[in-house]
Protein backbone atom coordinates (compact mmCIF):
# COMPACT_ATOMS: atom_id res chain seq x y z
CA UNK A 1 0.00 0.00 0.00
CA UNK A 2 2.76 2.39 1.00
CA UNK A 3 4.67 1.48 -2.16
CA UNK A 4 1.64 2.21 -4.33
CA UNK A 5 1.07 5.52 -2.50
CA UNK A 6 4.68 6.56 -2.96
CA UNK A 7 4.47 5.66 -6.65
CA UNK A 8 1.32 7.75 -7.14
CA UNK A 9 2.82 10.72 -5.29
CA UNK A 10 6.02 10.45 -7.31
CA UNK A 11 4.05 10.28 -10.54
CA UNK A 12 1.98 13.33 -9.60
CA UNK A 13 5.12 15.30 -8.69
CA UNK A 14 6.81 14.28 -11.95
CA UNK A 15 3.77 15.27 -14.01
CA UNK A 16 3.47 18.57 -12.17
CA UNK A 17 7.16 19.28 -12.75
CA UNK A 18 6.82 18.43 -16.44
CA UNK A 19 3.78 20.69 -16.75
CA UNK A 20 5.63 23.46 -14.95
CA UNK A 21 8.60 23.04 -17.29
CA UNK A 22 6.36 23.17 -20.37
CA UNK A 23 4.61 26.28 -19.08
CA UNK A 24 7.91 27.93 -18.20
CA UNK A 25 9.50 27.27 -21.58
CA UNK A 26 6.29 28.15 -23.44
CA UNK A 27 5.98 31.53 -21.73
CA UNK A 28 9.68 32.32 -21.60
CA UNK A 29 10.83 35.15 -23.89
CA UNK A 30 14.21 33.51 -24.49
CA UNK A 31 15.64 30.45 -26.21
CA UNK A 32 18.55 29.96 -23.83
CA UNK A 33 21.94 28.53 -24.60
CA UNK A 34 24.52 27.71 -21.90
CA UNK A 35 26.89 30.63 -21.33
CA UNK A 36 30.33 29.27 -20.62
CA UNK A 37 32.83 31.86 -19.43
CA UNK A 38 36.35 31.39 -18.10
CA UNK A 39 36.99 31.75 -14.39
CA UNK A 40 37.41 35.49 -13.67
CA UNK A 41 41.02 36.71 -13.59
CA UNK A 42 42.61 36.80 -10.12
CA UNK A 43 42.64 40.19 -8.35
CA UNK A 44 46.41 40.57 -8.61
CA UNK A 45 48.84 42.63 -10.66
CA UNK A 46 47.07 45.20 -12.82
CA UNK A 47 43.73 43.90 -11.50
CA UNK A 48 44.64 44.39 -7.84
CA UNK A 49 41.74 45.80 -5.78
CA UNK A 50 41.69 49.57 -5.36
CA UNK A 51 39.37 52.47 -4.71
CA UNK A 52 40.76 54.95 -7.23
CA UNK A 53 37.30 55.96 -8.44
CA UNK A 54 36.45 57.27 -4.96
CA UNK A 55 38.58 60.29 -5.91
CA UNK A 56 36.30 61.41 -8.72
CA UNK A 57 34.49 64.75 -8.76
CA UNK A 58 30.84 65.01 -9.78
CA UNK A 59 30.37 67.19 -12.82
CA UNK A 60 26.87 68.60 -13.44
CA UNK A 61 25.55 66.72 -10.42
CA UNK A 62 21.82 66.07 -10.65
CA UNK A 63 21.47 67.41 -14.20
CA UNK A 64 22.35 64.37 -16.32
CA UNK A 65 19.98 61.38 -16.09
CA UNK A 66 21.92 58.19 -16.80
CA UNK A 67 24.59 59.49 -19.20
CA UNK A 68 25.31 56.36 -21.28
CA UNK A 69 28.11 57.80 -23.40
CA UNK A 70 30.17 60.97 -23.79
CA UNK A 71 32.04 62.85 -26.48
CA UNK A 72 34.12 66.06 -26.40
CA UNK A 73 33.42 68.83 -28.92
CA UNK A 74 35.99 69.51 -31.63
CA UNK A 75 37.13 72.71 -29.90
CA UNK A 76 37.52 70.92 -26.56
CA UNK A 77 35.20 73.30 -24.72
CA UNK A 78 32.13 71.11 -24.31
CA UNK A 79 31.20 67.61 -23.32
CA UNK A 80 28.11 66.01 -24.84
CA UNK A 81 26.19 63.36 -22.89
CA UNK A 82 23.57 60.88 -24.15
CA UNK A 83 20.89 60.90 -21.46
CA UNK A 84 17.92 58.67 -20.70
CA UNK A 85 15.40 61.52 -21.01
CA UNK A 86 16.13 61.61 -24.74
CA UNK A 87 18.31 64.71 -24.66
CA UNK A 88 21.85 65.14 -25.86
CA UNK A 89 23.03 67.51 -23.15
CA UNK A 90 25.91 69.94 -23.50
CA UNK A 91 28.22 70.53 -20.53
CA UNK A 92 30.65 73.44 -20.47
CA UNK A 93 33.84 71.85 -19.20
CA UNK A 94 35.15 74.99 -17.48
CA UNK A 95 31.99 76.15 -15.73
CA UNK A 96 30.05 72.88 -15.51
CA UNK A 97 26.98 74.64 -16.92
CA UNK A 98 24.50 72.21 -18.54
CA UNK A 99 21.91 72.87 -21.20
CA UNK A 100 19.53 70.75 -23.21
CA UNK A 101 21.19 70.76 -26.63
CA UNK A 102 19.16 68.48 -28.92
CA UNK A 103 16.26 66.12 -28.23
CA UNK A 104 16.14 62.78 -30.02
CA UNK A 105 12.60 62.53 -31.49
CA UNK A 106 9.81 60.31 -30.23
CA UNK A 107 10.68 58.29 -27.17
CA UNK A 108 14.28 58.00 -28.33
CA UNK A 109 17.08 57.00 -25.99
CA UNK A 110 20.49 58.03 -27.39
CA UNK A 111 23.24 55.56 -26.54
CA UNK A 112 26.65 55.69 -28.21
CA UNK A 113 28.17 59.02 -29.26
CA UNK A 114 31.04 59.97 -31.55
CA UNK A 115 32.33 63.04 -33.32
CA UNK A 116 32.14 63.23 -37.11
CA UNK A 117 34.91 64.54 -39.35
CA UNK A 118 33.28 67.97 -39.49
CA UNK A 119 32.59 68.33 -35.77
CA UNK A 120 29.02 67.06 -35.89
CA UNK A 121 27.75 64.74 -33.17
CA UNK A 122 26.86 61.24 -34.31
CA UNK A 123 24.70 58.97 -32.20
CA UNK A 124 23.12 55.55 -32.08
CA UNK A 125 19.51 55.20 -30.98
CA UNK A 126 18.30 51.58 -30.68
CA UNK A 127 15.41 51.65 -33.16
CA UNK A 128 15.99 54.93 -34.98
CA UNK A 129 19.47 53.80 -35.95
CA UNK A 130 22.49 55.92 -36.85
CA UNK A 131 21.88 59.64 -36.41
CA UNK A 132 23.64 62.86 -37.41
CA UNK A 133 22.96 65.54 -34.82
CA UNK A 134 23.48 69.27 -34.94
CA UNK A 135 21.90 71.73 -32.55
CA UNK A 136 18.14 71.30 -32.70
CA UNK A 137 18.25 68.96 -35.70
CA UNK A 138 18.41 65.17 -35.99
CA UNK A 139 18.97 63.44 -39.34
CA UNK A 140 18.79 59.69 -39.84
CA UNK A 141 21.79 58.31 -41.72
CA UNK A 142 20.85 54.63 -41.55
CA UNK A 143 18.02 52.68 -39.95
CA UNK A 144 18.30 49.33 -41.73
CA UNK A 145 20.68 47.04 -43.56
CA UNK A 146 19.73 44.45 -46.18
CA UNK A 147 16.09 45.40 -45.60
CA UNK A 148 16.24 44.57 -41.88
CA UNK A 149 15.43 47.42 -39.49
CA UNK A 150 17.71 47.88 -36.50
CA UNK A 151 16.42 46.72 -33.13
CA UNK A 152 19.39 47.79 -31.05
CA UNK A 153 21.78 50.27 -32.70
CA UNK A 154 24.17 50.76 -29.83
CA UNK A 155 27.66 52.26 -30.18
CA UNK A 156 29.88 53.75 -32.87
CA UNK A 157 33.18 55.28 -33.89
CA UNK A 158 34.48 57.14 -36.93
CA UNK A 159 37.52 56.60 -39.12
CA UNK A 160 39.57 59.80 -39.12
CA UNK A 161 40.76 58.95 -42.63
CA UNK A 162 37.58 58.77 -44.68
CA UNK A 163 34.74 59.36 -42.22
CA UNK A 164 33.43 55.80 -42.37
CA UNK A 165 31.20 55.10 -39.39
CA UNK A 166 31.48 51.74 -37.67
CA UNK A 167 28.63 50.81 -35.35
CA UNK A 168 27.00 47.89 -33.59
CA UNK A 169 23.52 46.41 -33.71
CA UNK A 170 23.69 44.72 -30.32
CA UNK A 171 20.81 42.34 -30.98
CA UNK A 172 18.61 41.50 -33.94
CA UNK A 173 16.12 39.82 -31.58
CA UNK A 174 15.75 42.03 -28.51
CA UNK A 175 15.34 45.79 -28.21
CA UNK A 176 16.83 48.28 -25.76
CA UNK A 177 14.45 47.52 -22.89
CA UNK A 178 15.24 43.81 -23.23
CA UNK A 179 19.03 43.90 -23.18
CA UNK A 180 19.23 41.58 -20.17
CA UNK A 181 17.18 39.02 -22.10
CA UNK A 182 19.74 38.95 -24.89
CA UNK A 183 22.56 38.43 -22.40
CA UNK A 184 20.52 35.71 -20.68
CA UNK A 185 19.75 33.91 -23.91
CA UNK A 186 23.44 33.61 -24.62
CA UNK A 187 23.12 33.40 -28.39
CA UNK A 188 25.11 35.44 -30.93
CA UNK A 189 22.33 37.79 -32.03
CA UNK A 190 24.50 40.84 -32.73
CA UNK A 191 26.39 42.30 -35.66
CA UNK A 192 28.97 44.92 -36.60
CA UNK A 193 28.12 47.40 -39.37
CA UNK A 194 29.75 50.07 -41.52
CA UNK A 195 28.15 53.21 -42.92
CA UNK A 196 29.87 54.79 -45.93
CA UNK A 197 29.09 58.53 -45.96
CA UNK A 198 30.19 58.89 -49.58
CA UNK A 199 27.51 56.50 -50.84
CA UNK A 200 25.02 56.49 -47.96
CA UNK A 201 25.13 52.69 -47.83
CA UNK A 202 25.35 50.39 -44.83
CA UNK A 203 27.07 47.00 -44.96
CA UNK A 204 27.49 44.14 -42.52
CA UNK A 205 31.08 43.50 -41.45
CA UNK A 206 30.49 40.71 -38.94
CA UNK A 207 27.60 38.65 -37.58
CA UNK A 208 27.35 36.06 -34.83
CA UNK A 209 28.50 38.43 -32.08
CA UNK A 210 27.43 38.13 -28.44
CA UNK A 211 25.84 41.49 -27.60
CA UNK A 212 28.38 43.66 -29.44
CA UNK A 213 28.53 46.97 -27.65
CA UNK A 214 31.29 49.58 -27.78
CA UNK A 215 33.47 50.05 -30.84
CA UNK A 216 36.65 52.10 -31.32
CA UNK A 217 38.93 52.62 -34.32
CA UNK A 218 42.69 52.43 -33.74
CA UNK A 219 44.89 55.52 -33.96
CA UNK A 220 46.36 54.43 -37.30
CA UNK A 221 42.94 53.33 -38.63
CA UNK A 222 44.26 49.83 -39.34
CA UNK A 223 41.78 48.02 -37.08
CA UNK A 224 38.85 48.50 -34.77
CA UNK A 225 38.01 46.99 -31.41
CA UNK A 226 34.50 45.77 -30.63
CA UNK A 227 33.29 44.80 -27.15
CA UNK A 228 31.20 41.63 -26.73
CA UNK A 229 29.48 42.31 -23.43
CA UNK A 230 28.04 38.87 -22.67
CA UNK A 231 31.35 37.13 -23.46
CA UNK A 232 33.47 39.51 -21.29
CA UNK A 233 35.85 40.05 -24.19
CA UNK A 234 36.82 42.39 -27.01
CA UNK A 235 37.67 41.46 -30.58
CA UNK A 236 39.85 43.12 -33.19
CA UNK A 237 38.63 43.51 -36.77
CA UNK A 238 41.36 44.39 -39.25
CA UNK A 239 40.44 47.22 -41.63
CA UNK A 240 43.65 47.21 -43.68
CA UNK A 241 46.46 44.97 -44.83
CA UNK A 242 46.66 41.28 -45.57
CA UNK A 243 44.34 40.47 -42.63
CA UNK A 244 41.62 42.90 -43.69
CA UNK A 245 38.20 41.59 -42.71
CA UNK A 246 39.54 39.10 -40.16
CA UNK A 247 38.03 39.26 -36.67
CA UNK A 248 40.31 37.95 -33.93
CA UNK A 249 40.74 38.13 -30.18
CA UNK A 250 41.94 41.45 -28.74
CA UNK A 251 41.51 40.86 -25.00
CA UNK A 252 39.62 38.02 -23.30
CA UNK A 253 38.37 37.28 -19.78
CA UNK A 254 37.93 40.84 -18.62
CA UNK A 255 37.29 41.52 -14.91
CA UNK A 256 33.87 42.92 -15.80
CA UNK A 257 31.34 43.17 -18.60
CA UNK A 258 32.54 45.63 -21.27
CA UNK A 259 30.25 48.37 -22.47
CA UNK A 260 31.66 51.37 -24.34
CA UNK A 261 35.28 51.78 -25.42
CA UNK A 262 37.15 54.99 -26.30
CA UNK A 263 40.59 55.49 -27.80
CA UNK A 264 43.05 57.97 -26.30
CA UNK A 265 45.42 60.29 -28.17
CA UNK A 266 48.20 57.87 -27.21
CA UNK A 267 46.47 55.06 -29.07
CA UNK A 268 45.41 53.14 -25.96
CA UNK A 269 41.79 52.32 -25.13
CA UNK A 270 39.63 52.91 -22.08
CA UNK A 271 36.90 50.30 -21.53
CA UNK A 272 33.94 50.93 -19.27
CA UNK A 273 33.03 47.72 -17.42
CA UNK A 274 29.34 48.03 -16.68
CA UNK A 275 29.39 45.51 -13.83
CA UNK A 276 31.72 43.13 -12.06
CA UNK A 277 31.93 39.37 -12.37
CA UNK A 278 30.08 36.91 -10.15
CA UNK A 279 31.32 33.33 -10.18
CA UNK A 280 28.00 32.16 -8.72
CA UNK A 281 25.88 33.81 -11.41
CA UNK A 282 28.24 32.74 -14.18
CA UNK A 283 28.07 29.15 -12.93
CA UNK A 284 24.28 28.97 -12.92
CA UNK A 285 24.19 30.65 -16.34
CA UNK A 286 25.39 27.32 -17.72
CA UNK A 287 21.92 25.89 -17.12
CA UNK A 288 19.10 26.84 -19.53
CA UNK A 289 16.41 26.01 -16.95
CA UNK A 290 17.84 28.61 -14.57
CA UNK A 291 17.99 31.10 -17.41
CA UNK A 292 14.27 30.60 -17.98
CA UNK A 293 13.70 31.41 -14.30
CA UNK A 294 15.93 34.49 -14.52
CA UNK A 295 13.92 35.66 -17.53
CA UNK A 296 10.96 36.32 -15.23
CA UNK A 297 10.50 39.79 -13.78
CA UNK A 298 11.82 38.69 -10.39
CA UNK A 299 14.86 37.06 -11.90
CA UNK A 300 15.71 40.16 -13.91
CA UNK A 301 15.65 42.23 -10.72
CA UNK A 302 18.11 39.77 -9.20
CA UNK A 303 20.48 40.25 -12.12
CA UNK A 304 20.19 44.04 -11.92
CA UNK A 305 21.37 44.18 -8.33
CA UNK A 306 23.96 41.44 -8.67
CA UNK A 307 26.83 43.89 -8.99
CA UNK A 308 26.79 47.67 -8.65
CA UNK A 309 30.51 48.23 -8.46
CA UNK A 310 32.29 50.43 -11.00
CA UNK A 311 35.31 49.37 -13.06
CA UNK A 312 37.32 50.92 -15.90
CA UNK A 313 40.30 49.46 -17.69
CA UNK A 314 42.94 50.95 -19.98
CA UNK A 315 44.52 48.58 -22.49
CA UNK A 316 47.29 49.03 -25.03
CA UNK A 317 46.83 48.83 -28.80
CA UNK A 318 47.90 45.20 -28.42
CA UNK A 319 45.17 44.44 -25.87
CA UNK A 320 47.48 44.40 -22.84
CA UNK A 321 45.92 45.65 -19.58
CA UNK A 322 47.68 48.82 -18.40
CA UNK A 323 45.62 50.57 -15.72
CA UNK A 324 42.63 49.38 -13.77
CA UNK A 325 40.46 51.51 -11.50
CA UNK A 326 37.40 50.60 -9.52
CA UNK A 327 34.86 51.63 -6.95
CA UNK A 328 34.36 48.25 -5.24
CA UNK A 329 31.11 49.17 -3.49
CA UNK A 330 29.60 51.74 -5.83
CA UNK A 331 30.07 54.46 -3.23
CA UNK A 332 31.11 57.17 -5.69
CA UNK A 333 29.71 55.79 -8.93
CA UNK A 334 28.24 52.53 -10.22
CA UNK A 335 27.29 50.78 -13.44
CA UNK A 336 29.91 52.69 -15.43
CA UNK A 337 29.23 52.47 -19.16
CA UNK A 338 32.00 54.66 -20.55
CA UNK A 339 35.38 56.16 -19.74
CA UNK A 340 36.59 59.02 -21.93
CA UNK A 341 40.02 60.63 -21.50
CA UNK A 342 40.48 64.35 -22.20
CA UNK A 343 43.31 66.63 -21.07
CA UNK A 344 44.58 64.25 -18.40
CA UNK A 345 41.14 63.73 -16.90
CA UNK A 346 38.90 60.70 -17.16
CA UNK A 347 35.19 61.33 -17.67
CA UNK A 348 32.80 58.56 -16.62
CA UNK A 349 29.18 58.00 -17.57
CA UNK A 350 26.88 55.38 -16.10
CA UNK A 351 23.41 53.86 -15.87
CA UNK A 352 22.91 54.66 -12.19
CA UNK A 353 24.18 58.25 -12.16
CA UNK A 354 22.77 61.73 -12.69
CA UNK A 355 26.20 63.25 -13.20
CA UNK A 356 29.47 62.71 -15.05
CA UNK A 357 32.37 61.53 -12.96
CA UNK A 358 35.58 63.50 -13.54
CA UNK A 359 38.82 62.01 -12.31
CA UNK A 360 42.23 63.66 -12.47
CA UNK A 361 44.66 61.06 -13.77
CA UNK A 362 47.49 62.97 -12.09
CA UNK A 363 46.04 61.91 -8.74
CA UNK A 364 46.28 58.20 -9.54
From TrEMBL:
Q: Name one Pfam family in it.
A: Str_synth
Q: InterPro entries this protein is in?
A: 6-blade_b-propeller_TolB-like, Strictosidine_synth_cons-reg
- Which superkingdom does the taxonomy of this entry point to? Eukaryota
Subcellular location per UniProt equals: Vacuole
**Keywords for this entry?**
Glycoprotein, Phosphoprotein, Signal, Vacuole
GO CC: one term? endomembrane system
**Domain Strictosidine synthase conserved region as annotated: residue spans:** 154-241
- Chief subcellular site? other
Family per UniProt?
A: Belongs to the strictosidine synthase family.
Q: What is this protein called?
A: Strictosidine synthase conserved region domain-containing protein
Species whose genome carries this gene = Adiantum capillus-veneris
